[in-house]
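Quick one - inputs below.
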Amino acid sequence: MSDISKEAVHDLIALARLNCSKEEEKHLASNLKKVLGFVKTLDQVDTSNVNSTAFIFNDLKLKTREDEPNEANLLKREEFLEGGAPSYIGGLVRVPSIGIK
Amino acid sequence: MFKNSGLELHRKLIEGKLSACEITEYFLSRAQMLDDDVCGFISVSAEKAMEKAYEIDKKLAEGKNVGKLAGIPIAIKDNINIKGQATSCGSKHLKNYIAPYNATVVKLLEHEDAIILGKTNLDEFAMGSSCETSHFGYTRNPWNLSKTPGGSSGGSAAVVSARLCPISLGTDTGGSIRQPAAFTGVVGFKPTYGRVSRFGLVAFASSLDQIGPFSNSVEDAALMMEVMGRPCDDDATCSDKLAEHYLEAINQPIQGKKIGVPRSFLKELSEQRKGYFENSLKQLEKQGATIVEVDLPHSEYAVQVYYIISTAEASTNLARFDGVRYGYRSEKAKNLRDLYDLSRTESLGSEVKMRLLTGTFVLSSGHADAYYQKAQKIRQLIIQDFEKAFKECDVIAMPTTGASAFEIGSIEDPVKMYLQDLYTTSANLAGLPAVSVPSGFDEDGMPLGLQFLGPRFTDKRVLQFAKQFEKERDAMPLPPLFDKEV
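Output:
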């Protein structure tokens, strides 16, 4: 069983850009322990002769294109902002100040 | 009219027996009368659907050609963008998000004159196997309303099963099309990774996600693949292979073909479930196919590998939901860091948070080798097993799920829920085409699914086996609650 401390869970929550109540933290920690215990069974598999690669489909040639906007997919600034930006001013998205915690 | 397949409706339109307006009005009113029972739709776009129907009828009246999907009502899973309509992903975070562009699949469907009826319910961000984690509430199984339709594409499965429309689109990351298809007694197809464009699909796990159809006949799935299976310049992972003719190919008999069965992988099946599966194999043998045994020794680890890779990719993909440019924004935030943290915390559900946490953990320094890299290596072993197995057979057959649909609220343990995907995740990890086709009923009268998997880019062959099986199988009844006019 993989063990993970309360502090580690707290740090992880911050890393994932979440902010949970003590109760929610406890619930997440208990589920995380179960899941990590479950996936830990992979240790049984011998992988010493396998190379690690994230891209595994050799029959797919990843396409590249010039780094230029595709006119057909171009989204107008106003359309984007008015379409659902939570807050905007002068054609720009508005956020609170960076501030100091 | 509700008993017609998509292709049957299309043919009746072309023959002048039905108009597009008649078909659309009929299915809109059916959805309005019956969807309260299944809750498959998140939104219905009646006005837009009727506009499209008028346009098709006008074209026909003027003697113009119409597209391959003309007159066919289709529902779209709510994680695929339709310009000007909400794409909620079943999440509070995107509840008010209006998509500013069309997904490629939506463009292709509209180009072929499909009538898009609305958007369907899903587990939040497609993370789940029961459609229980949606912000918009549960979707129910048309065969038994106290059971789940499976997930994550539960809404797309339920609306096709209840005949609220003949065809829908879902997405499959670890079984999210095939498991709900099996649970609701419909056909569900996950194409080869790279066969269908994902431009305009909200990403969950980018090395696994695929868009595919639900339908009541394999023929309709083949029709959808003729339209959707083609190159796309906007998706770098979409193959350049040209579109293919599926409708002809699926009618080829399977006489003399070899079907691989990974018996040792299926050892956990109950005796009863094993019996149902063996009956399906017997039928295939009667049709002239030979059953051979194949070995997939690493597939028993597929769910664990899937959970590490999918949560890792999800934690990266979902980082974009930070409340800055679109989506939910917390009103409590006083500074930028709080804006990220609070917007995400207040708007994401607990299963999504759980997976983001798992993904963050398996990628974090100190753990990435033991978890993420280890999983990537075993993923390769799973792929190698399949490559070896396909030297011995044309397709592999397995049950889609270990059991039929479960009661809503009955699975609380996350690991038990994840194991729902035991027989489906390996196809995603290996990027293979896989279809679930209804194979009968269990002792409780709930539908079961049979799954065929093929080598990469043998989508036609996989659908051919499903079609040939469907042809000889007993006729599939409709869910009794929905076998009625309204």
